[in-house]
Write a structure and sequence with these properties.
With 489 residues, this protein is mainly beta. The protein has 3 helices and 34 strands. The strands form 8 sheets. Strands 2, 3, 4, 6, 7, 10, 12 and 13 form an 8-stranded mixed β-sheet that branches. Strands 15, 16, 17, 18, 19, 20, 21 and 22 form an 8-stranded antiparallel β-sheet that branches. Strand 20 (303-313) and strand 21 form a beta hairpin. It is globular.
């Protein structure tokens, strides 16, 4: 596993920056040694004009990376420092040194064993540079070892190792409200914006499943905007219809109590041949009972994060999450340009749902790959066989059958022909999902940067930190449903 340490304490002379992002720390060091800014990032060098500069013997700095270990020190624990040969390095006051010819990602990224010097609780790895040189550019350090990471109010805590898993059952919903949740228009909310705003004392939603469906369950993620989970639905009635016309919602699916906060919550229902499903919201967790004309506390608003329907659509033979659901009608919604965007359409498009990838299983900075293994009994092989990946996320997946590399999955359709390697009897199939170095190297603090990351994105970070773990931007990599070995006659 990997823990990216991108915040540190740095001292030059009698001046110290505590909890500084590595880019800010580097700028501080160079500016205190006569540079306008970090020359490797901002300046243009003519021949060797920067590299030939020398500095007094008493110049230099001390930089300390800190991390916390919970319960026990991992038996395998290393820290990676860029150009460790430039520093005298200690861990908790004990001198440590890079291993000879040992590096990670880049030959200038030296590996230093910390297993003997580290301890449970806070640890400090200190770099001492005397005298200063132009090569003393501070960057992030990387903790490597057999451990998992637990989120904390300030970064992450190193905890005992735990295996990764296929975790499709632990979908959660983002807490970022705009563009991800529905919120009713409420009563009296922003009366300065008529006629777009209208009172909504009887909130309801109607969903179009796209065609007749035998609905078996409704999966709900309640409203979970930080500090406002009490606006979530507490009680609602669900009814179905084949036509969606007024007065046609006569199929009673039940009245349910929904708990406050994040989901999912699965409601068992039974309705055959319905296409439209109506939610009538009867109360929220903020003490409001609907219908109402009283704004009560916070405009009598109520909201939901996501809704999924499980059933057997017409023409299908098996139960599945119904795809292509649309919001047919809604009482009202809070969507004001420049203020908030809580439109009901986001309830069913899945944009807020987050699968439990590696980053939700204690490996937010991990990229190297995870192997998922299944065994299949094939008494008499015939025809063709292919491995299919119905739900995964990564840069590429390697497929091994009985120890042989059978191929790669890198583009649609997410499948690999493995016929050549299938043998009679037991067959072991292994799929290795590979992530990307975006999660390891960042940027982590510039929002959801996808597609193109510029140098400027790496500079965007809170001035002091580390910030809360949940604010780090990482991508959900992993296998989210078991892969399949499909037989083709």
């Amino acid at each position: 596993n990997v823990l990216t340490l991108d915040y540190l304490d740095v001292t030059v002379g009698d001046e110290t920056l505590e909890g500084a992002h590595c880019r800010r720390a580097t700028q501080f060091v160079f500016s205190r040694h006569g540079f306008e800014r970090n020359p490797w990032f901002h300046a243009i060098q003519f021949r060797d004009e920067h590299m030939r500069r020398t500095f007094p013997p008493d110049s230099g700095f001390e930089a300390t990376y800190r991390f916390t270990i919970k319960d026990e020190v991992p038996a395998d624990l290393q820290i990676v420092i860029e150009r460790p040969d430039l520093y005298a390095i200690t861990c908790n006051g004990t001198p440590v040194a890079p291993e000879e010819d040992a590096w990670w990602l880049d030959r200038s990224f030296g590996r230093i064993d910390l297993a003997a010097a580290a301890r449970v609780g806070e640890n400090a790895v200190t770099l001492r540079a005397r005298p200063f040189t132009v090569y003393h550019e501070l960057e992030a350090a990387y903790l490597l070892g057999a451990f998992t990471l637990e989120p904390a109010e300030s970064g992450f805590v190193v905890a005992p190792d735990a295996p990764l898993d296929v975790d499709s059952d632990t979908l959660r919903h983002t807490t970022v409200a705009d563009g991800n949740m529905w919120l009713s228009g409420g009563i009296g909310f922003r009366p300065d914006l008529p006629p777009a705003r209208k009172d909504d004392g009887e909130p309801f939603l109607v969903f179009d499943l796209g065609g007749p469906c035998d609905v078996q369950a409704v999966r709900i993620f309640n409203y979970n905007e930080p500090n406002w989970t009490r606006l979530g639905v507490r009680r609602l009635a669900i009814r179905g219809s084949s036509t969606g016309k007024a007065g046609s919602f006569t199929v009673d699916l039940g009245t349910f109590e929904i708990r406050e906060g994040d989901g999912p919550q699965t409601l068992s229902v039974e309705a055959r041949g319905v296409r439209f499903v109506r939610f009538d919201i009867l109360s929220n967790h903020n003490g409001v009972t609907f219908p109402t004309a009283d704004p009560g506390d916070y405009f009598a608003m109520v909201g939901l994060s996501a809704v999924q329907f499980v059933g057997v659509p017409e023409g299908s033979e098996r139960s599945e999450t119904v795809r292509g659901v649309a919001v047919a009608e809604v009482s009202s919604e809070a969507s004001i340009p420049g203020l908030c965007d809580r439109r009901a359409e986001y309830l069913v498009d899945g944009r807020g749902l987050i699968a439990a990838g590696w980053n939700r299983q204690g490996h937010p900075f991990y990229a190297a790959g995870a192997a998922y293994t299944q065994r299949f009994e094939i008494p008499r092989p015939s025809g063709r066989y292919r491995v299919e990946l119905p739900a995964w996320h990564g840069s590429v997946a390697r497929v091994f059958v009985n120890g042989h590399l059978a191929g790669h999955v890198a583009y649609r359709p997410w499948e690999c022909d493995v016929t050549e390697w299938i043998r009679p009897g037991a067959n072991t199939v292994e799929v290795v999902v590979i992530g990307t170095l975006k999660n390891t190297l960042g940027p982590h603090h510039a929002g959801a940067v996808r597609g193109l990351a510029t140098p400027g994105h790496f500079n965007r970070a809170p001035a002091t930190g580390p910030p809360p773990a949940e604010t780090y931007d990482t991508i959900d990599y992993g296998l989210f449903e078991p892969f399949m070995l499909r037989y083709l006659p």
